[in-house]
Amino acid sequence: MKINLYIGCFILLSLAACQSQEANKEIVRVDRPESSILKGVHLPANKDVFYTSGLVSEVKNPNAKPGDMSKYGNTYEQSIGVLRRIKTTIEAEGYTMKDVFFLRVYIAPDSTGEVDFDAWFKAYGEYFNNEINPNKVARSTIGVYKLARPELLVEVEAVAAK
């Protein structure tokens, strides 16, 4: 009977130790030093994860008519606006931009008919891979034909964990 009790205690202590080790696992960001984004991310099972829906920038010019590109601004302005909105959204849930590890970015052509990827890359650099937030993220940046409204140029989904 005592042996069974000792074995039971040993098993419980072993399980507790394994759970404790799992709780101490950190998020591992697999870097690409030559790039502003990561190769990928290892996310331990014990982390709390928050996914945003696709977010767009807030309206810049509420008096603009539907389809008027001044309603949300150019690609850079919308990129900054959506990153600001992601920051507000995740902070309301207890996360920070340093907790973001993945972005899926959709960019539509601007009034010239071109997708301005450089505008997005510039805005990204103001929120990630810099002195304030040295973290990079795993990211997909996708040029699309159009978004839900003609004046929208940028939509982003973010995933954060801690």
TrEMBL record:
<dbReference type="Pfam" id="PF01042">
    <property type="entry name" value="Ribonuc_L-PSP"/>
</dbReference>
<dbReference type="GO" id="GO:0005829">
    <property type="term" value="C:cytosol"/>
</dbReference>
<dbReference type="GO" id="GO:0019239">
    <property type="term" value="F:deaminase activity"/>
</dbReference>
<protein>
    <submittedName>
        <fullName>RidA family protein</fullName>
    </submittedName>
</protein>
<dbReference type="InterPro" id="IPR006175">
    <property type="entry name" value="YjgF/YER057c/UK114"/>
</dbReference>
<dbReference type="InterPro" id="IPR035959">
    <property type="entry name" value="RutC-like_sf"/>
</dbReference>
